[in-house]
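This section describes the prediction task in plain terms. A model, or a person checking by hand, is given the sequence of a single protein chain and must write out its three-dimensional structure as a string of tokens. No templates, partner chains or ligands are provided. The sample shown here is typical of the held-out split.
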Amino acid sequence: MGIIKKTNMKTFIVCLLVLGVAFAAHETVQPSIGAGGLSLAEIKKYNELKETKWGKILIGLAEVHIQASGPIQRLIQALEDLIKELNTARSDENNRFETKRATHEANVQNLNSQIGAANSEINSNRVKIQSILEPKKQQAQEDIARDTQIVAEKQENIRSATSNRNKDHADFEKRIAEHTEAIAAVDESLQLLGTLAKNKPSLLEFKKATMSFKKLELQIRKTHVTEIPFVEALISLAMNQDVNQDILSEIIQKLNKLRSRLASSVQLETENEAAAVKAFDELIVQLNKEINDSKNNIQRNTVLI
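The expected answer:
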């Protein structure tokens, strides 16, 4: 059953009273003007009531009661009970609405309070996080700059070491070639001296020997400057046509020792080159490791900022 609005309640009650009076004075619900009837104002209220949904229902009920010869008091009581029920329903509905509204407002206030507390906590934590992360960010930036410089320096060290190694290796190959040529010149001189020691040398043989010794002298000047006086002395003795076999044999022995020294020098050069290559390889491995470590540090610190 619906609720009658408060503004219409007064009019509704007046109409009910008018209708009750009409029911008490007549057998049918047909209001009339004049003696024993209704005034113009009451008829107006009665007509207004007939135009409403509830008015039609009530007039219909009244006619049923009159036709059934029922007591009018029961109709009035029923109407009063209906009014009371409607008022009670309206009051209950208002109470439920006020309760829900109060609950809603309390929930809204609670949620707003929680949102405010959360925003405050977020701002507080943001400040704390920034105070912690900002120094770390600055340190990370400094570490990145340092490691970047390290990478550049190590790469330059690799380029420089590679260039020096290539130069040293070229010098090594040149020295080995010169030593090899010097040994070949000694061998050639020994062969000629052996020929001179066995037979009386001819003028042509002396010329060949002279050319061979000059070649030997040139090669020795390139590799063993300290041996120059010794070689010159040997050449001077060997070129003396009056030199005897004993002196030639002694010259041959000394040239053989010279050859041994040249061969030892070649071996030492080769060993030194091998050691230099090993040291270079180890240096490159170490430099590349330091470069990779610095690059890893850069990548890790980049994530932090």
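For orientation: Helices lie at 6-25, 40-50, 53-67, 72-198, 203-223, 228-238, 245-304.
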